[in-house]
Design a protein that fits this description.
- With 200 residues, the protein is α/β, with parallel strands linked by helices.
- A 4-stranded parallel sheet has the order 1-2-3-4, with helices on one face.
- Strand 1, helix 2 and strand 2 form a beta-alpha-beta unit.
- The longest helix has 22 residues.
- The two termini are 31 Å apart.
Length: 200
């Protein structure tokens, strides 16, 4: 839950999320803290981790990005190729929403477009993306940029999966691997919890 556009911009979002992140780190420690977000929330999760890294705040135990929206400008030329197979997202609508989220000041900010942000402080990042999601090309671009900085982002890509397919397990068309991916994420989180229990 965070302040939503068009009433609010990214500045309102980070005024809320930054202090909340720090409070959680102080209360439970990074070993017990997983940051996970889907779509716009995936972009926000990455940008928040980038911002905290810049401030010298500990990174979460795991950063999990589900079909993240990494660049609201939608400038990657590969997007139009994938858009032909994307039954969910509309590029024009996304650009308009992104402009409202960015406001006048944030159009080139990494807090709005985390693909522009620093990656050198990130750790233990998993990115889920489907090949029928028009945000998929930017996911690949992010992974390549991270590799250039010596950072590994684990890319888990599912063929013909659409935007946030793993959260739509009960829909029949276009969500063939939804249950499988959902259970994979559940297992991942459960294993992290068990690791923490073993360390006690």
């Amino acid at each position: 839950d965070y302040p939503l556009t068009p009433k609010y911009t990214y500045q309102d979002v980070f005024k809320m999320m930054g202090p909340l992140y720090k409070e959680i780190i102080n209360n439970v420690g990074s070993e017990h803290f997983v940051v996970m977000g889907d779509s716009a929330g995936g972009g926000l999760s990455l940008a928040l981790s980038q911002q905290m890294g810049e401030e010298g705040i500990e990174q979460p135990k795991k950063l999990i990005l589900l079909s993240p929206w990494l660049d609201v400008r939608m400038q990657n030329p590969e997007i139009d190729k994938v858009a032909k197979n994307d039954p969910i997202l509309n590029k024009t609508a996304l650009i308009l929403s992104g402009e409202r989220y960015a406001g006048e000041e944030g159009k080139e900010s990494y807090l709005v477009n985390p693909i522009l942000g620093p990656l050198n402080k990130l750790k233990d990042v998993i990115l889920y993306t489907g090949t029928y999601d028009m945000l998929n090309p930017d996911a690949h671009l992010l992974v390549e940029k991270a590799k250039e900085e010596g950072i590994t982002i684990e890319l888990r890509e599912v063929e013909k999966a659409v935007h946030i397919w793993m959260l739509n397990r009960h829909k029949n068309v276009g969500y063939d691997h939804a249950e499988e991916t959902y259970q994979e994420i559940v297992k991942l989180l459960r294993n992290l919890g068990e690791e923490n229990e073993e360390k006690k």
